[in-house]
Amino acid sequence: MGNVVRTVQMLQVAEGVDAAGEPAQLIAAAADGDLIAFERLYRQFSPRIYGLCLRLTGQREAAEDCTQESFVAAWRGLPDFEQRSRFTTWLHRIAVHTVLARRKGLRVAHEVAEPESGLPDVADPGSGAPPIDVERAIARLPEGARHVLVLVGIYGFSHAEAAVTLGVAEGTCKAQLHRARGLLSAALGLE
Question: What is the pTM of this model?
Fold first, then answer.
């Protein structure tokens, strides 16, 4: 077993992956202005950032816009990235701030909501039960509850981190998570 661990560690060093599993060499190269390195970071991390933005906004087009805006902000801010936190944490914070700034701005008043029908549900052929659409249920949560659920429940932020990121008290964050879980359980018929 020790040989396997050493082999994985040697591969990580060879690929420039640090102990946290992040591509340290790519991050450093991108911070120095290497556009190709930044493109590789974009390709690696954009699906996760898009997922975060989609869960926070509940709208595909808004999530796509927020993802792009987040990476533009990351490109601009990367030379100042001090590596006091993980790169993914830093990117998540940028994405959350981008979504929140969008929600506070005038754009939200002019956005077109996703149609209620959305994508067709595909039921499990072996069961007679209707499909459970967790993503749609999350998207229908009230904004504050949805944001806390996504950050704490899905992305693993602590209550303190989520509270700071969202600009609310930690107690509010905890209350919103409790509310979100209750509403989500009711929406999914899990009570």
Answer: 0.68
**Is pLDDT of 42 > 60?**
yes
81 secondary structure, DSSP code: -
CA atoms in the 13 A half-sphere facing the CB of 189: 5
Give residue 2's identity as a one-letter amino acid code. G
Burial of 15 (0-12, 13-18, 19+ CB in 10 A): exposed
| Rounded Cα gap, residues 140 and 187, in angstroms | 9
The pair of three-digit structure tokens given for residue 178, joined into one six-digit string: 């409790």
If 0-12 CB within 10 Å is exposed, 13-18 middle and 19+ buried, where does residue 57 land? buried
> In the predicted model, what is the mean pLDDT of residues 156-175?
90
What confidence score (pLDDT) does residue 11 get? Answer: 40
